[in-house]
Amino acid sequence: MSSGVRVRFCPSPTGNPHVGVVRAALFNWAFARHHGGTFVFRIEDTDIARDSEASYEAMLAAMRWLGLSWDEGPEVGGPHGPYRQSLRRDIYADVAERLLAGGHAYHCYCSQAELEERRERARAQGRMSGYDGQCRALTAEQVAAYRGEGRQPVLRMRMPGRTIAVDDLVRGQVSFDAGQVPDYVLVRANGQPLYTLVNPVDDALMGITHVLRGEDLLSSTPRQIALHEALRELGVVTGPMPVYGHLPLVMGEGNRKLSKRDPESSLDLYRQRGFLPEGLLNYLALLGWSLGDDQEIFDLAEMAAAFDVARVNPNPARFDLKKCEAINGVWLRRLPVGEVAQRIVPHLVAAGLVASEPTAEQRELLVAATPLVQERMTTLGEAVDLLGFLFVAEDQFTVDADDAAKHLAPSPGAGLEVVAAARQALSTLDRWHTAAIEAALRAALVDGLGLKPRHAFGPVRVAITGSRVSPPLFESLDLLGRDRTLARLGRALA
Ligand code: GLU
Ligand code: ZN
Asked: What is the Cα–Cα distance from 441 to 448, expressed in whole angstroms?
């Protein structure tokens, strides 16, 4: 049985999904699931100039990747569809007509230049510089005159002359005095309905009970409340006013609000780097909320079970990439090895190390190698650098130039001498496995050449893996196999 709670996630499909949007989706999702309610996914694509189909697809793909399932919305449908605002034009035109006829909205004929000029004057005189209500009560003659000049009006909301109080779930009582919120545009002169109209209209028509969204939208709330009341008076809607909760701002570097344009706010970046949805969502949940005093790691089900919007912290939350990575690392270590290997595959594919369908042999190698790196990675993408030497084609294998200069020097007593001794020792091994490899190398390099382990194994590591940083050496050689190991050591010498 549904509890009657209905929340919505209603992004505008402009650009790539960003972490602020994902946080809003997550909190609404958790609220819906906690209350056994309905999570509505609506696409606010009324801005033809800025919205794109690619961004719409990306939004759906992001939600699927994150595992945030919706109950009504694109592709799943529902009783209040369509859920793309671009398909609801007739509804908005009809509502606009009724608002106008009922006197809740009016035509404003002021030109941009006139508005600008009056705004300037008001500012200079220290008065409020919002719309001054000039067209609130035009006479028939004035209207006729404007029309005669060929002016096309915008539709403006007539804000009621009384205080509007918001009982915010996160911020408590917030109130807006009469006259503080100017009459605002609902429909452009060209007939295009704006966010100011379509968002609260759809919240009302879709029976939304709770609106959880970023604090930056708090200032639009009194307008939306006024509009909802007008719709109710007109009989367009009968349901109750939604309850609002404004989530804390997310701050980026330097204590500025994290903006869409900041690279670290792009969800794509996290996917490409190999964040797990589990880890990313866990971290985003902490931007304003926590499960309990000392439980930082939790999954979606635990979050849904415990979510309480009254416990959302109203103070700005700082986005801390290091912390996000650390939490992702915890999630990486939690997953079964086979699962981690599976999720590494797309990163090896993207790096061109394996074909989009890796061979059975490559999969086996990956599963065997994953335990060597699982503990030390914070993102899946790191596997490319750490394990790439196992998958790279032999004729593509290269050694990092700096590491080569440092560890594979040809002078007497330097790296290449070590590599030669290692090759000699390994070529006579009769069984190729980690313990035998380790014993042979220790005997030849530490005992034989009298080197400290660090100096003994560094050159071998660089020659074999191409870099100073690699998974544990003896296991790496074991996985790489005798032939490739000897070939690479030989190549370093040549
Ligand atoms: N489409 C709006 C946005 O993406 C929705 C804001 C709201 O939740 O009301 O900012
Ligand atoms: Zn006007």
From this structure: 9
Residue 209, ligand 1, Cβ within 6 A: no
How far, in Å, is the centroid of ligand 2 from the Cα of 151?
Answer: 11
| Whether 273 contacts 379, CB under 8 Å | yes
CATH topology of domain 336-389: Helicase, Ruva Protein; domain 3 (1.10.8)
Q: Whose CA is nearest to atom 7 of ligand 1?
A: 213
Report the top-level CATH class of 88-247: alpha beta
Q: Name the amino acid, one letter, at 87.
A: L
Looking at ligand 1, which residue's alpha carbon is closest to its atom 4?
11
Q: Could you give the C-alpha distances from 293 to 14, 298, 330, 401, in angstroms and in order?
A: 37, 12, 18, 48
**pLDDT of amino acid 409:** 87
Nearest ligand, CA 211: 1
Size of the chain, expressed as the number of residues it contains: 494
Q: Which CATH architecture has domain 401-493?
A: Orthogonal Bundle (1.10)
Residue 227 neighbours by CB under 8 Å, 6+ apart: 104, 157, 186, 196, 197, 200, 201
Q: Does residue 210 contact residue 247 with C-beta atoms inside 8 Å?
A: no
pLDDT digits (tens, 9 = 90+) for 317-372: 999 999 999 999 999 999 999 999 999 999 999 999 999 999 999 999 999 999 99
Q: Summarize pLDDT for 423-481 with one digit per residue, the tens.
A: 999 999 999 999 999 999 999 999 999 999 988 999 999 999 999 999 999 999 999 99
Choose the CATH number for 6-74+250-318 among 3.40.50.1480, 3.30.1300.20, 3.40.50.620, 3.90.550.10.
3.40.50.620
Q: What is the pTM of this model?
A: 0.94
Domain ranges of the chain: 6-74+250-318, 88-247, 336-389, 401-493
Q: What is the DSSP secondary-structure string of 298-340? A: --HHHHHHH--GGG---S-EE--HHHHHHHHHHHHHHS-HHHH
Cα–Cα distances in Å, from 303 out to 198, 282, 299? 31, 9, 6
- pLDDT digit string, tens, across residues 195-230: 999 999 999 999 999 999 999 999 999 999 999 999
